[in-house]
Design a protein that fits this description.
With 446 residues, the protein is an alpha/beta fold. The chain has three domains: 67 residues, Roll (SH3 type barrels), CATH 2.30.30; 218 residues, L-asparaginase, N-terminal domain (Rossmann fold), CATH 3.40.50; 113 residues, Rossmann fold (3-Layer(aba) Sandwich), CATH 3.40.50.40. The strands form six sheets. An eight-stranded mixed beta sheet has the order 9-6-10-12-13-14-17-18, sandwiched between helices. α4 crosses α5, α5 runs parallel beside α10 and α10 packs antiparallel against α11.
């Protein structure tokens, strides 16, 4: 018998012969619940049991409030082990690299908090339908929330992706927390060259054990893109609409999380989406995407981590810039106002930074549109002292790109040339009027 509970909860359930995923009827003083007994990690307390109700939602029940519990049936569903799902690993079509995040989390229905508590292989056991899309191999790498992501982890992910693609898999899916997913997609876009298949990041706004989860469609759609598309670039696949209709395929250097909680939180910025996908179909805007190449995937993980991203805002203290200079930082990305401006009262500190060989790139907080530092006097003054205009790059993308540039080049002219050159679709030569207001729709022929 498989029963994941411990302590008093385990004894309580063993008395009726319950197992994980048994169907039980629970009566308390005020309510009657019928549902599936869900597994509970040993790290949680032994005072509660967790049920999945017929409406799809889960509930935690304190065992000392239970007046009666009945076993209605064993094994409400087949529990599929990773060994049943992961077949012929050496010939796998798609590798799943797990890094944690909400997509690999459970809700503790006592505290209400979400914890990253299971691996990529356990995610497969939740969604065995993925086996119909391709042969799957799992690669456990990290188990963190995305706010704990750091550049050293980008290196590990990039090396793992290159290793998997060079082993012969068709594509790679990276399960990741949503909050910093666009940082990671940008980093991989610069670190990985000559991609022989799609590198697809996906995640979830709501954990897989919630009835309203977006994990199912996101995960299976991401695997579909990795297994069946001819992309040769890094993309993010997430819900296109609040409902479970399609997922959008976003370029990894042109996408940003734009909402804290909606399922369609991700939008392409200054860019069309590359396509849409669901479990039945995939529609690609083929003329816009980069195609898979042949040969060996190249990986370059050289990054200069002493780069900072700061905002220009009313009252920003020039001491902030001086602090980074005094700490030996080599690069600053300034998310400026409007067309790429900063307050007059920090100009002296910016000039000092440049004189100390700190590279400064100016982007815009507006996100949509591009900087144009020749329209107003302040922009011209910034150009005169030597800042680099960030064109239409997102501040986060410019931050990652500058880390890569400073990690690989020593001459100022080389760094400047790299920052102003389009490497992974991060710079757009012209912006269509159809790109704003933003939408997750495909526009053909633009």
């Amino acid at each position: 018998m498989t029963l994941s509970y411990h302590g008093r909860a385990k004894v309580f359930l063993e008395e009726i012969g319950a197992e994980d995923f048994s169907v039980v009827l629970v009566k308390t003083r005020n309510n009657v619940f019928k549902g599936v007994l869900l597994p509970r990690p040993l790290t949680e307390d032994d005072k509660h049991i967790v049920l999945k109700l017929n409406n799809g939602y889960n509930i935690g029940v304190r065992i000392d409030k239970v007046e009666e519990i009945k076993l209605l049936g064993q094994k409400a569903r087949k529990v599929i082990s990773p060994s049943e799902i992961i077949k012929a690993e050496e010939y796998a079509d798609v590798s799943i690299i797990g890094t944690g995040g909400t997509i690999a989390s459970r809700v503790d229905y006592v505290t209400g908090a979400v914890y990253p508590q299971f691996s990529a292989s356990e995610l497969l056991s939740r969604y065995p339908e993925v086996e119909k899309i391709g042969k799957i191999k799992t690669v456990p790498l990290l188990n963190i929330f995305s706010e704990d992501m750091r550049p050293t982890y980008w290196r590990e992910i990039a090396e793992s992706v290159a290793r998997e693609l060079n082993s012969g898999v068709k594509g790679v899916v990276i399960t990741h927390g949503t909050d910093t997913m666009h940082f990671t997609s940008a980093a991989l876009s610069f670190m990985l060259r000559n991609l022989t298949g799609p590198v697809v990041l996906t995640g979830a706004q709501r954990s897989p054990d919630r009835g309203s989860t977006d994990a199912y469609l996101n995960f299976l759609s991401a695997v579909k893109v990795a297994a069946q598309s001819d992309l040769g670039e890094v993309v993010i696949v997430m819900h296109q609409t609040p409902s479970d209709t399609y997922c959008a395929i976003h370029r990894g250097t042109k996408v940003r999380k734009m909402h804290t909680s909606r399922r369609d939180a991700f939008l392409s910025v200054n860019s069309h989406i590359l396509g849409i996908v669901n479990l039945k179909e995939m529609i690609m805007f083929s003329s816009y995407s980069r195609k898979a190449g042949e040969g060996e995937v190249e990986v370059n993980t050289k990054l200069e981590e002493k780069v900072a991203l700061i905002y220009a805002y009313p009252g920003v203290d020039p001491d902030v810039i001086d602090f980074y200079v005094d700490k030996g930082y080599r690069g600053l990305v300034v998310a400026g106002t409007g067309l790429g401006h900063t307050p007059e009262y920090i100009m002296k500190s910016l000039k000092r930074a440049l004189e100390n060989d700190v590279t400064i790139v100016v982007t815009s907080q507006c996100l949509f549109g591009r900087v144009n530092m020749k329209v107003y006097r302040r922009g011209r003054e910034l150009l005169k002292i030597g800042v680099i205009p960030g064109e239409d790059m997102l501040p986060e993308v410019a931050y990652v790109k500058l880390m890569f540039a400073l990690g690989n080049y020593t001459e100022k002219s080389e760094v400047t040339g790299f920052m102003r050159r389009n490497i992974a679709g991060e710079l757009t030569s012209s912006l269509s009027l159809r790109l704003f207001p933003p939408t997750n729709q495909i526009y053909q022929g633009v």
